[in-house]
Amino acid sequence: MSSACTCCWVLLFNDFFQPLTILSALPLCLGGSFVMLLVTGSELDVPSMVGLVMLMGIVTKNSILLVEYTIRNLQLRQVPMVEALADACMKRAGAIVMTTVAMTAGMLPIALGFGADASFRQPMAFAVIGGLLTSTALSLLVVPVVFSYIDALRRTVARLPGRSRRRDTNGVTAR
Asked: pTM of the full predicted structure?
């Protein structure tokens, strides 16, 4: 991940810690991709690497959906964190599942070997489908947990001696 992209996330969320929450979803997709490549007997080659890059973009977008909606709930509605996380997962699960279904349906003809030179592109489809299935199932569980731990870390750092008073995510002044 480039430093410019990370800086954009820091500016977007006005926080140095939430990009870590977003990036926590990336390892969830890699396991599914590698298992799917192993099960199908495909190699880790250039097309499968292209699929991994595409997959990481989709998984990052899904994670941003969850984190952004949770932060919005915390700031605007002034609800407890657990309620904000649960609401974000329920409301954004539909969009995440629809993205997974659409990408899987788009990759299915390639995975089944239809089209010209499908054997060259099949590893890409296997990597994307495997990674999407595991990341969709796990990101709705793992990202909220990581969000709560990162938020606790952020609050702990904000309370360290020598830190100036500033406003935290909930709009409450922190010491």
From this structure: 0.79
